[in-house]
């Protein structure tokens, strides 16, 4: 158990709803759910989630902390925004799902090896490194995330598309050397560090 | 009345003169209708046409037939008080519904001439009603029950200028609401509980010179009829006061369902209370921390919704109340707020399966969620009371059995109406008692002790009860109306409701009571024939004392006199004519509506003989829904068969079977009836009329068989006022069906 998690358990004891309200992005909306189930019915990924948003809200109220934070459900959200558009109580459900995913990741409780989580992490790391997403290194990092053999297999499978992109001048192989970056990388890193510090302080994660 | 002088007026406007042969119509009125005077006008409803009629009336015309549009049209122009009027419906009934073109000229003209003949025949049998003879007329209004409904009704009536008498069983006004800390919000922003305002209302009543209040009192006798109810009010001490009133509002409210019967939900155990119990605890806390009976401060509370309500759909074993009481969700939300407002750290869980907050309750619900009240969708399996309560439940979202601990459990029990004696039970006991059963006689005395109004009516001491024991209501069309004219139920005694609805209900009932006293004073009927001055009379020398009229009258208007003859209480009568339809010897009639007024119309129709190969169909249409639907079919220019001759009747209940047998004997090929919906969700304006008609018609098969006729020749349909397309289709289908069956053998 991570230190952050131990602290959170100590702090909120059995009031998981309160923990979510204070620490999860838009978490204070959870209590306003009226359990109509429109979000669950609207979700295009509905059948593939372990728990629908409706159930997750109910589980939060019922204090099922471990089950909520360890499930991969929130990671299945594709941000299609159907649920937000349809929620009669105007809950920002998509944002709450991402907030919950982020929180569980911060506490070290999120499911290991969850592919969407891996992509999100690779994307973030790639983007903040130079202030721009380097599509070539991001794709390669994805292909090779499960080892060299799988990486080569993935690359071969995608080589047609890659060559096509190069022909159409949509992919520059020279980008592998680091590519173009933002003018002032250092400042971007500072900005992100500051934002994170503020955010953590607000959420009690400092 | 002076000698009858008749006149017929034929309007040729609205296209009537263009498609019909007016000379033929005049001939029908003159020759067959035997009208002393027949006049034609191109625009009868304009000032000139109306003046012509008025001049003739001044010149001595006493009975007139207006052959123009439907009786439902131009009612103001063609309103001539003091004379008998009939209307031949040439516009909506003929030219707008018979298919266009010269192919149909002959049947169209036949139909129009028949309607003129029918109108002339009808008016000659009409006696101009003089209105009910006034016996006395009190305009005071009695309000039984001094709760929020009763007080609202009393204040509304007093503000409108009427004297009010309130009878309240308890020693103070306020009823159930008197024991509430606050009420569910009734004005914006609907976010916080609001003061009940009961004390202010009671003070207002005390200061109002028009309102007289009897506290610690009950009604021990109600005799008479609208405009002249004699009330005996008995105090706890035994002193009896007599009051004369014109109408009654019964606002006797409800009693919470007995929590001790809810053993499966912990009813009767320590720290399991109902909503009334929680109000008492909150009242004692006076805004501070709410404490249990054992003095412990409550830190967690679970509200169990639908406790012993909604049958198996709610919580409990499903053997308690079948219905939803409507107010309990909002009430629990309010009570959860008592806790949250005193201390936000108290855990409040509302356990529901379907949360229903009528009115602006959604805002209140959201407000509670914002305050941190937890709403859990679950079905309770078991409640254990005691020092530490536990609620076992099935979480309906997560689909798992689980439990929650609490210091206190509040059961949201339902409303049980205080509607007095159930008349079905009553009549069963009375039948036994009349048969000489001593135990049953004792039982009637015992039952009467539970009565609210103690009516001196042959039908029993209280108003009839609706579903689940609620006081009577014409639920679908006229919710304030009951089957006891001049007596109106308001508030949760009529149907489950919250305070806001009860107040609205009470205002409506007060208005109905005002209408009742005003109509009674003018000698007129009450709703829905409030303009009607006619009333039923019986030719007693022909009466066989069969009692059908007294039993079948839906409104308890007919008593029996010492000689067992029917005795009409005209003020209670709604003029539906159900007694007239019931009477096997046809001695009951109204001045302007009788066996003869309709019978003569039936006879006035020219029935084609067997060689003409045209059927003739009679349609008896209820004037409340079916006849307007027929008019609407005309307005929409939907065509239907010209073989039909429609006669409006006050209610299908007033249809006397003699009309049907007479028509069939005269060679009509079929009789169609259209009335309102019957059954539990009836729409009959007179409650039982269509049901009785349907029962009577179910017996007519034997008569038809004796006459050698097919049963299909008499048919009844339930029709709603919106059914204009359907009525046209029903008529056409029936005409086709009769042609297939063949012409009536009675013609030969």
Key terms for this structure?
A: Fumarate Reductase Iron-sulfur Protein, Chain B, domain 2, 2 domains, 12 helices, globular, B: 748 residues, alpha/beta, Rossmann fold, FAD/NAD(P)-binding domain, 21 helices, 29 strands
How would you portray this structure in words?
The complex is a heterodimer of chains A (206) and B (748). Chain A has 206 residues and is an all-alpha fold. Chain A has two domains: 3-112, Fumarate Reductase Iron-sulfur Protein, Chain B, domain 2 (Orthogonal Bundle); 115-197, no CATH class. Chain A contains twelve helices and no strands. Chain A has helices at 3-12, 16-23, 38-42, 53-61, 65-70, 82-86, 93-106, 115-130, 135-143, 148-157, 159-167, 185-203. The longest helix of chain A is centred in the C-terminal third of the chain and has 19 residues, at 185-203. Chain B has 748 residues and is α/β, with parallel strands linked by helices. Chain B has 21 helices and 29 strands. In chain B, strand 16 and strand 17 (389-395) form a beta hairpin. The longest helix of chain B has 23 residues, at 499-521. The radius of gyration of chain B is 31 Å and the shape is elongated. The model of chain B has no long low-confidence stretch (mean pLDDT 94). Chain A binds chain B through residues 17, 31-32, 34-35, 54-55, 58-59, 61-62, 64, 89, and chain B through 355, 365-366, 369-370, 372, 374-377, 395, 397-398, 402.
According to CATH, the homologous superfamily of the largest domain in chain B is: FAD/NAD(P)-binding domain
Tertiary shape of chain B: elongated
The radius of gyration computed from the alpha-carbon positions of chain B, rounded to a whole number of angstroms, is 31 Å
Strand segment count of chain B:
29
Domain module tally of chain A: 2
Given helix and strand content, the structural type of chain B is: alpha/beta
Could you tell me the number of beta strands of chain A?
A: 0
What is the CATH C level class of the largest domain in chain A, in words? Mainly Alpha
Q: In percent terms, what proportion of residues of chain B is strand?
A: 15-25%
Derived structural class of chain A: mainly alpha
Topology order of chain A in helix (H) and strand (E) letters: HHHHHHHHHHHH
Please report the two chains with the greatest interface, counting residues with C-beta closer than 8 angstroms to the partner's C-beta.
A-B, 13 and 14 residues
Unreliable stretches of chain A (pLDDT < 50, length at least 5) are none
In CATH terms, what is the architecture of the largest domain in chain A?
Orthogonal Bundle
SS summary, helix count of chain B: 21
State the fourth-level CATH superfamily of the largest domain in chain A: Alpha-helical ferredoxin
The quaternary organization reads as heterodimer
Q: What is the total number of structural domains of chain B? A: 4
